[in-house]
Amino acid sequence: MRFFGFKCDLLAALGLGFLLLQAVVFEARAANPACQDDFTCPSSWVGLNKGDKDKVFKFSEDYKNFIHKARTELSFVTEAVKIARKAGFKPLTKTSPMTPGARYYDVNRARALSMIIIGAEDFSEGFHVVGSHIDSPRLELKGRPLYESGEFALFQTNYHGGIKSYQWTNIPLALMGRVDKKDGSIVEINVGLKPGDPVFMIADLSPHVDRGYRDRKVKDQIKYEDLDPVMGHIPDTAGNNIKQQVITYLKETYDVSPADLVSAELSLVPANAPRDVGFDRGLVAAYGQDDRLAAYAAFRAILGLKKTNKTVISHFVDNEEAGNRNNTGAKSDYFSDLLSRMIYAQKGDLYREPMLRAALAKTRMVSVDVNPGINPKNPGAWELDNAPKLGHGVNIKLYGKGNAGNSEFLAWIRKTLDDNDVPWQTSTYKVGRAGGGTIGGEYSRQNMDVVDYGVPLLSIHTPYSISSKVDIYTLYRALEAFYKE
Questions:
Q1: Model confidence over 458-484: pLDDT tens digits?
Q2: Where residue 66 sits, what CATH number does that domain have?
Q3: Are residues 482 and 302 in contact, defined by beta-carbon separation less than 8 angstroms?
């Protein structure tokens, strides 16, 4: 039998040869994971056997299912606690015994979460902590949001985190969050994610009527103050007062009044479901991958652990995109208070504050956060020798200017990754041309050893960013290895 003029046995031989070549490359990387020395590291996809590839794709399906529901810090905590309970994690209380192997979780005001596995070592030897944030760039309602214009009811919004305003028009949005009422009751609102739900949208001008507008600079095309989605359109029976129709709907459906919206945390987030990208399905497009990709990898890594030497903590915080502020953000004293509570539970009346400070000094932390990867359309945004590539594994962030981890801790991290055959790369922004932050600096101020790493994305901080499935799985493996050290 022939195929395009070639004998099938020749094709088979060529196919076998290619597989052997892949195996050689993979084995070479495993034998010498520090191939960064000469910048010859292949893509992490190269040499994956079928079993490993199946694990990558299965992990990504679980990730997509989770991130579809967990689009805000409130919904992340809710979904994570459900899964943690099933995996044997129990609420941390004043009387929880610090027995090795015990599994606890602690929720900070419904918007931040810590998951804990007690290790064999005394707390005085420090902890192994992975920290990430679970908020993402989004729109949120102003205190008095509802108004009427042009025979439409609209909500006035503010923005949370760094966004490009024009990217938030003409896409379906979901409304998620909670309303806290004066009587102490909480009303959960989640509209736009389920099939059949209505969605909301910020309408842009069409090209037929935008002459005079399109000459604006891109950043001025859509003003931040104009990011107001349409919430209603049908007038009342008198033919007017569309705003009142929305007020009536909120009252009848949720028992919420306009005044109740003053004490609400309601976010407008992209409603599109996570999807695979490309014929080979090697990429994931989804909203909120900064930083719920990293948070999910950390969550799964601690979920599967049984026994550890060090006590390990997955620490998920809010408000990183807004400067780490508030009592659920990284600048809060919550984390040191959590460790203090645990040390007191172990030491009892012998506890003294210097014990906490000594434990912090011996604590190692990975601040894990995604970052931009090399964009195929604009590779020049990076200095390429120090740029992270999708599909090439964990990237260790080397910011410089006093913002990187200590060299001895970086060496320890390299050894941990190499000993566990975890592919890694490095990233450093173009000098003076780019930047960004994580939660890491807030914890290094508490005298812990902290290093930042993550994986690269395309279209980061947009309503729909792109990640590589193999990177998601690689980050999970990297954090699992860190916990076990």
A1: 999 999 999 999 999 999 999 999 999
A2: 3.40.630.10
A3: no
